[in-house]
């Protein structure tokens, strides 16, 4: 954030917000692209991390699966080091005010802006039904951010357009209702590190829609099978290989420290090092990287009441914060409440 006197957020305290969609099992792409940044940020600022189950309903129509994925995301975050004493982790649907704010934003968003939504067009092109929820997804996302007074949003490159819609809404809201004083902050992207796209086992972007993922908590035979299935070219074992064009190395690079990276890249270039060797190396790196989290997750899975309590308390704090902002928003737009 800039400190210039024209900083639109100068009068707001810094608040980090981010949502996580419970629409599938979290995978290595989610980990390196988003979760790792969330874990790194969550202790440093006032922050709100929520499991966006309303958003998941745009594509997931299986109640049991939605409940399971929602619970699993909470388990995953806690196992990966999220400390509920330092931040708030909760379910989006525990803060119903978010839909109230979304409605107000619906009335302020040009349809033409949503029609340009890359994410919407991508999902429809992938064969998902073009429901109104999917179309209006960025509006609910904007409400998610602004209802907590979010000033900083950790985002990947794929989310930048949606954040622009959110920023436009905040600016429009302030212009229309602010009478010269901004009511809502204009959130900024919080890019901790530029993350390369994590490839899936078939070499395309790792994504649950492509069925090419390696789950963060995959282990044993299932993990081995996935790692061994990573697509490589057919360069014979003895010949030199280019690490920079190899899907296995792209994953090794994410887990390995500098020295290990250099060592493996050297082995690729020297020849006599096969893709099977590289896959074994990767398997070891993944297993080691998540060893502690895997143990913690198993322990947490034995204590569902604890996980529920974390979500309940996070939700309570989320509602409190949301109500604070909604009181100002209702007043600004002229909605009368009599209760
Ligand atoms: P999916 O593509 O599996 O549906 P999501 O769209 O739910 O994943 O991704 C949530 C976040 O995880 C994204 O905003 C992005 O930051 C990150 N992410 C997902 N897949 C990848 C990937 N392959 N490489 C890097 N980041 C990713």
Which characteristics define this entry?
339 residues, mainly alpha, Rossmann fold, Tyrosyl-Transfer RNA Synthetase, 2 domains, 3-stranded parallel beta sheet, two-stranded parallel ribbon, 6% strand, binds adenosine-5'-diphosphate
Describe this structure in words.
- By secondary structure, the protein is mainly alpha-helical.
- It has two domains: 16-195 and 304-333, HUPs (Rossmann fold), CATH 3.40.50.620; 208-293, Tyrosyl-Transfer RNA Synthetase, CATH 1.10.240.
- Helices cover 52% and strands 6% of the residues.
- It has helices spanning 28-41, 53-56, 63-79, 97-106, 111-115, 118-125, 132-135, 137-146, 160-177, 220-228, 247-255, 258-270, 275-289, 291-301, 304-333; strands spanning 15-20, 46-51, 88-91, 152-153, 188-189.
- The strands form two sheets. A three-stranded parallel β-sheet has the order 1-2-3, sandwiched between helices. A two-stranded parallel sheet has the order 4-5.
- β1, α1 and β2 form a beta-alpha-beta unit.
- The model has no long low-confidence stretch (mean pLDDT 94).
- Adenosine-5'-diphosphate (ADP) binds at residues 21, 29-30, 32-34, 156, 158-159, 195, 197-198, 205-209.
């Amino acid at each position: 954030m800039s400190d210039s006197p024209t900083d639109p957020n100068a009068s707001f305290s810094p608040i980090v917000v981010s949502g996580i969609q419970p629409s599938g099992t979290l995978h290595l792409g989610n980990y390196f692209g988003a979760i790792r940044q969330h874990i790194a940020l969550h202790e440093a600022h006032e922050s709100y991390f929520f499991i966006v189950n309303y958003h998941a309903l745009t594509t997931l129509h299986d109640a049991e699966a939605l409940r399971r994925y929602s619970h699993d995301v909470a388990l995953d975050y806690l196992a990966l080091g999220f400390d509920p004493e330092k931040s708030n982790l909760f379910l989006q649907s525990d803060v119903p005010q978010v839909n109230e704010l979304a409605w107000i934003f619906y009335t302020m968003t040009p349809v033409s802006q949503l029609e340009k939504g890359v994410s919407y067009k991508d999902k429809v092109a992938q064969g998902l039904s073009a429901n109104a929820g999917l179309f209006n997804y960025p509006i609910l996302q904007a409400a998610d951010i602004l209802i907590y007074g979010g000033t900083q949003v950790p985002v990947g490159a794929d989310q930048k357009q949606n954040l622009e819609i959110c920023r436009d809404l905040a600016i429009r809201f302030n212009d229309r209702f602010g009478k010269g004083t901004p009511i809502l902050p204009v959130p900024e992207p919080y890019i901790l590190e530029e993350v390369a796209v994590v490839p899936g086992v078939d070499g395309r972007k790792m994504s649950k829609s492509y069925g090419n993922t390696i789950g963060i908590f995959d282990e044993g035979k299932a993990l081995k099978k996935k790692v061994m299935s990573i697509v490589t070219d057919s360069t014979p074992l003895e010949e030199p290989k280019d690490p920079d064009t190899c899907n296995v190395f792209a994953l090794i690079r994410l887990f390995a420290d500098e020295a290990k990276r250099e060592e493996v890249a050297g082995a690729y270039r020297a020849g006599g090092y096969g893709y099977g060797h590289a896959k074994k190396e990767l398997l070891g790196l993944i297993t080691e990287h998540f060893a502690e989290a895997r143990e913690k997750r198993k322990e947490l899975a034995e204590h569902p009441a604890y996980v529920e309590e974390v979500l309940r308390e996070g939700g309570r704090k989320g509602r409190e914060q949301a109500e604070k902002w909604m009181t100002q928003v209702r007043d600004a737009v002229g909605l009368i409440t009599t209760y």
